[in-house]
Write a structure and sequence with these properties.
The chain has 209 residues and is mainly α. It has one domain. It is 89% helix and 0% strand. The radius of gyration is 23 Å and the shape is globular.
Length: 209
Amino acid sequence: MKPFCKRLKNAQKVYKIAPMIENVVHNFASLHPFFVHFPIAFLFAYSFFAFARVLITNPEIKNAFWEAERVSLIVAFLSIFPAFFAGDTLAERLGETRAIELHESFASALVFFVFLIFAIYFAESIWRFAKSRAKDFGAENVFLFFERVLKLHVIFKAFAKARACTFAISFFAILIFVLVSFLGALGAGIAHGQKADFFVEFVYTLFGF
């Protein structure tokens, strides 16, 4: 009898907690319009600084833009995930429409490329920092093993070339700018209607809405 009563009490607890969890998820999804402005702003900033850095010849300004570019990318990388998951939760609540599906596709592509660019810029630094910390705990051999197995020296060399390549920098800057612009227009159309402004209307017309 006691085990049954215990299970019953546990079930009652879960029954009480479930609405609370549902409420948290609901509120989290509702914050998508708030979250999304941070990655949009900082990705636009990243695109501007990256593209401008290619055109500028003054070394001091170039270095300043390089630092601004890196900071913008870090903030965008950190803020894009809550925006993405809140949007995904909100999409489930609103139901799948063609506009929402297209918006999700652009969001997934954007997250992928932001993750890739972040890796190109910072993966080697993060790895070397983690490796130096692991050395303090006698776990450096684990990092050395993965370096050999995954050929990380080859990957990091390719990343370094990409960071120094004018074409790669320009390509990523333009790509991110286009993805964010289209993603924002699709989101604005979902929230405010397909004729919210001329660019939103243009994007929706372009995709045959």
